[in-house]
């Protein structure tokens, strides 16, 4: 059968793409209605039916809002009760056998149950959103098990709204999945492409039968480096789906985002799909490509309104870009650069922002307005195309970088100084920093903000909470304690609130995973630390115990990564300013007698550019910022760092580069896979691979913990090993934490006995290495 690459112009009976659109919309609700509904269901306070109704109300509110704002054909299936990748796995019946008996299979996969651990969760490309990693093997029996995308179309139609369903594209779905445990060597989920395409074909037919004109297939994986085999998969997928007769399928819009399509552009251009989406914020390089003209027969959905930040769009620049494209592509439609999932709902909710700053901002609803305004301007603009690709660049540093401060002594020298100073037992047990954030503390913080309680009262409550955490750790027998971070609403927002140059929102929530959200601070000015931030709390915590209490800071890369950052200064200069603020805090903690300081960088890998060619440069200045923040530490001050959501190879490169003395990492959730990495041999620093997956309410049993720790001890000399959870405990309850830490301490005591031999021999090793 011959494909028809240009259905729009050749067959005018097929409806054109609307002139303005968005790729997706926040789903948590303007007042986090979804969060409340989920947590109420999980706590047994409401039924699944009530949860489903809450979801339905949110979808209705979204479609009404978007049509009120003037969007003709809003997207549907952008809603999810937990995660859209999980929705896709569920829809395809890619449900591993161990979940099938659960009461609620969907949430068992997302969160685990008492009997079964959840699926792995990891970062969605370079964002702070997390998706659930599907497990696919040769045994996965794909079928269309759920018709959510079709149902949502019908649901919207009842409200008089016709929508464009959004699906995760089959190639990205498989590339984001992992091979199930029993899969034969060499198997990758992409090997199942043909079977998945069978189900997608069936789904497209069902959507066409439902009267859908356009379907959006998201393929963000195509903006990262892709092998020839993967590019062949793209071709196979879209020749097959586009090859369905246009009476049997809706028109296909393949959207890319978070970067430029690279080698995937000519492949897609050659496939019988009717529209292609380009990210013209992060993927602007595409404008200079000669093969852009290969899109001449297609609708280009031009992502000129940035979906990853909250700054107003420069409408004139965007208009130039649209007019330039008009000369190159077929139809041109105005869109956001990606889904608006990554920005808060509505600026109108923010009453407290400085009016001068506020004028420069656009949240999701304002971005919808921009898209519509641009479509109007574009339609009214003269027909002649702009002929040169418009340039819009981030400013580069005009002055030389500020000097990098002096480095610390080499690690082996520091290790000796620290061992003498700290006198820790073998296999020290510690935690990552936060203890459960209780409703009481959150309520107290809300009451303080509302002026209902005094500063003194709030401080007393926080101190009581610190004391509770310290006493618990002492009682359970941990070796290096933490104060528990009760004074922090969030590890980034808290610092932003105490630094100059940041603004904080009241309702600017962005979903991070499931029901969990953050309010990313807005870094809009020059960053400076007017006064010490954590020193008072650290002093207080240390006064309660003879065991060392870690000072706890968030690193510069993570502060930048989890904020909305100004674009009128070179990113590198911004990093340096934040690094200097943290450096001042490290110095003050040290002066206050704190002997272990942890500077977390869980977002280090998140900001890693998706294309390998750009990664070395990024790592050099991200790492530079970290070292700038920490190199003020004396040799005997032990610097810890914590990384989560990274894979092994990335972590190991990063750990060496960061030059911290001890690194705690997430590993329980992936069964300590990091230790299989060949680079682990010869690893020379302290390492704490997590033995407790804190993302799930499950409490790990002692043998589970010893099992993981033994795996660690087979690879690493015992005197380098720390025992700790995967990440902070703030999302857990005190009951769960007490049970899990008890088991961790018990398991460690057993290990200390069996590994005494190992310990004495590795001690010798270390002495030799120092010479
Ligand atoms: N920024 C950031 N990104 C991160 C992480 C992180 O810790 N921070 N961790 C990783 C995993 N992501 C996470 C993201 C959020 C949360 C999380 O727990 N968020 C909390 C909100 C934290 C917060 O801002 N708390 C505030 C506000 C709390 C609140 O909801 N207050 C009530 C009122 C108080 C009450 O009566 O309960 C309200 O505003 O309605 C505070 O404690 O002050 C939540 O969604 O529940 C956890 C992990 C990766 N990315
Ligand atoms: C997402 S990494 C979290 C690190 C932080 N210190 C905590 O324990 O919560
Ligand atoms: Zn973490």
Summed up, what is this model?
This protein is of the alpha/beta class. Helices cover 39% and strands 11% of the residues. The strands form 6 sheets. Strands 1-5-7-8-9-10-11 form a 7-stranded parallel beta sheet.
Counted beta strands: 21
Q: Briefly note the structural class of the backbone.
A: alpha/beta
Average of pLDDT: 93
β-strand percent reads 5-15%
Total number of helices: 25
Please mark out the parts with pLDDT under 50 across 5 or more consecutive residues, or reply none.
1-12, 761-771
How helical, in percent, are the residues?
A: 25-40%
Looking at the structure, the CATH topology of the largest domain is TIM Barrel
Strand order of the largest sheet: 1-5-7-8-9-10-11
End-to-end gap = 74 Å
Determine and state the CATH class of the largest domain: Alpha Beta
Which compounds are bound in this model? Answer: ligand 39S, methionine, zinc ion
Gross morphology is globular
Pfam family, one: Meth_synt_1
Protein name: 5-methyltetrahydropteroyltriglutamate--homocysteine S-methyltransferase
GO molecular function, one term: 5-methyltetrahydropteroyltriglutamate-homocysteine S-methyltransferase activity
Function: Catalyzes the transfer of a methyl group from 5-methyltetrahydrofolate to homocysteine resulting in methionine formation.
């Amino acid at each position: 059968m011959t494909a028809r690459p240009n259905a729009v112009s050749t067959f005018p009976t097929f409806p054109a793409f609307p002139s303005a659109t968005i790729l997706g919309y926040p789903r948590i609700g303007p007042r986090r209605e979804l969060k409340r509904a989920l947590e109420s269901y999980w706590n047994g306070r409401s039924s699944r039916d009530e949860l489903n109704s809450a979801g339905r109300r949110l979808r209705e509110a979204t479609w009404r809002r978007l049509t009120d704002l003037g969007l003709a054909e809003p997207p549907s299936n952008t809603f999810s009760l937990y995660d859209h990748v999980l929705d896709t796995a569920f829809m395809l019946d890619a449900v591993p056998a161990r979940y099938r008996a659960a009461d609620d299979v969907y949430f068992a996969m997302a969160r685990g149950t008492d009997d079964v651990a959840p699926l792995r969760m990891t970062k969605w490309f370079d964002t702070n959103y997390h998706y659930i990693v599907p497990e696919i093997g040769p045994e996965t029996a794909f079928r269309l098990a759920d018709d959510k995308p079709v149902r949502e179309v019908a649901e919207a139609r009842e409200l008089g709204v016709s929508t464009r369903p959004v699906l995760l594209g089959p190639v990205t779905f498989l590339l984001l999945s992992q091979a199930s445990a029993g899969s034969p060597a060499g198997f990758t989920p992409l090997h199942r492409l043909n079977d998945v395409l069978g189900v997608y074909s069936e789904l497209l037919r069902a959507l066409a039968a439902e009267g859908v004109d356009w379907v959006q297939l998201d393929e963000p994986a195509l903006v990262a480096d892709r092998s020839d085999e993967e590019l062949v998969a793209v071709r196979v997928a879209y020749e097959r789906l586009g090859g369905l007769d246009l009476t049997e399928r809706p028109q296909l819009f393949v959207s890319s985002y978070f970067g430029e399509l690279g080698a995937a552009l000519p492949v897609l251009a050659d496939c019988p799909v009717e529209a292609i989406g380009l990210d013209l914020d992060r993927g602007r390089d595409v404008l200079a490509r000669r093969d852009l003209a290969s899109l001449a027969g297609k609708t280009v959905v031009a992502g000129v309104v940035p979906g990853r930040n909250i700054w107003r769009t420069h409408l004139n620049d965007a208009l130039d870009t649209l007019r330039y494209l008009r000369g190159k592509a077929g139809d041109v439609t105005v869109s956001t650069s990606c889904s608006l999932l990554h920005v808060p709902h509505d600026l109108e909710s923010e009453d407290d922002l400085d009016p001068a700053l506020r004028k420069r901002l656009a949240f999701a609803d304002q971005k919808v307005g921009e898209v519509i305004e641009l479509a109007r301007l574009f339609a009214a603009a003269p027909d002649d195309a702009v002929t040169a690709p418009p340039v819009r660049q981030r400013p580069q540093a005009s002055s030389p970088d500020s000097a990098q401060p002096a480095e610390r002594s080499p690690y082996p020298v520091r290790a000796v100084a620290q061992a003498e100073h700290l006198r820790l037992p073998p296999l020290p047990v510690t935690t990552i920093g936060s203890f459960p954030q209780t409703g009481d503390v959150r309520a107290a913080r809300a009451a303080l903000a509302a002026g209902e309680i005094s500063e003194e009262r709030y401080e007393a409550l926080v101190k009581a909470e610190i004391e509770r955490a310290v006493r618990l750790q002492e009682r359970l027998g941990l070796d290096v304690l933490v104060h528990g971070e009760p004074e922090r609403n969030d590890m980034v927002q808290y610092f932003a609130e105490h630094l100059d140059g940041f603004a904080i929102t009241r309702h600017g929530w962005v979903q991070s995973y499931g029901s969990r959200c953050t309010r990313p601070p807005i870094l809009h000015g020059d960053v400076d630390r007017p006064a010490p931030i954590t020193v008072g709390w650290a002093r207080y915590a240390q006064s309660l115990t003879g065991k060392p209490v870690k000072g706890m800071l968030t690193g510069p890369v993570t502060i930048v990564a989890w904020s909305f950052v100004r674009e009128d200064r070179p990113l590198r200069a911004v990093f340096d300013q934040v690094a200097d603020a943290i450096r001042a805090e490290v110095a003050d903690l040290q002066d206050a007698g704190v002997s272990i300081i942890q500077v977390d960088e869980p977002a280090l890998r998140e900001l890693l550019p998706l294309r390998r060619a750009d990664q070395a440069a990024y790592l050099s200045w991200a790492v530079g910022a970290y070292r700038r923040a920490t190199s003020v530490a004396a040799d005997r001050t032990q610097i810890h760092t914590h990384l989560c959501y990274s894979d092994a190879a990335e972590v190991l490169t990063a750990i060496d580069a960061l030059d911290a003395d001890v690194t705690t990492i997430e590993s329980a959730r992936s069964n300590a896979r990091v230790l299989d990495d060949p680079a682990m041999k010869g690893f020379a620093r302290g390492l704490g691979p997590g033995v407790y997956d804190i993302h799930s309410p499950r409490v790990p049993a002692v043998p589970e913990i010893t099992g993981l720790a033994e795996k660690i001890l087979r690879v690493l000399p015992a005197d380098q090993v720390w025992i700790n959870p995967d990440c902070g405990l703030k999302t857990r309850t005190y009951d769960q934490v007490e049970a899990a830490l008890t088991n961790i301490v018990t398991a460690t005591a057993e290990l200390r006995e069996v590994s005494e031999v190992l310990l004495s021999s590795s001690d010798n090793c270390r002495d030799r290495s120092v010479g």
